[in-house]
Amino acid sequence: MSRGKAITLAVFTIWPVVYVVLFMCMMFGMMMPGLWGGRPWGAPPPFWIILPLHLLTIFEIPVLLVIYIVYLFRTSRVAQDKKVLWALVLFLGHMIAMPVFWYLYIWKQPEEGTRGPEGPPY
Q1: Measured between alpha carbons, how far is 102 from 112 in angstroms, rounded to an integer?
Q2: Rg from Cα positions in the chain
């Protein structure tokens, strides 16, 4: 994968983590009614910003999961005996596992002298 595509994938991969922090801050802020002018009715203004972001994030995570699973089974950078384990980890712990997988197998270059899962040449 080219560096440009890897960086683009990293931005999309980090977004759900950033969104969770943003969402929690907004929810905490909504609990303080005086913060939004004491309006007792209707949604506060940040709600209309966070709603589209929430929907986009909901649809982004499964798309990212498909991208990572397809990459996992097409690449030779992950050892054959670890692919099923990585698939389960990506599926069950996607928000934490995807950035780790991205760093280990997409961004990080293979060490000099290794040829993939076979190990060093003899």
Answers
A1: 19
A2: 20
Contact 13, 64 (CB under 8 A): yes
For the stretch 15-51, pLDDT in tens is 999 999 988 888 877 776 665 555 556 666 777 888 8
The answer to whether residues 19 and 56 touch, using CB atoms and an 8 Å cutoff, is: no
Tell me the three state secondary structure of residue 1.
coil
Contacts of 68 (CB under 8 A, 6+ apart): 90, 98, 101, 102
Please tell me the distance from the alpha carbon of residue 64 to that of residue 107, in angstroms, as a whole number: 16
**DSSP secondary structure letter of residue 81:** G
Read off the pTM: 0.77
* Tokens 């950033």 belong to residue: 18
CB atoms within 10 A of CB 55: 10
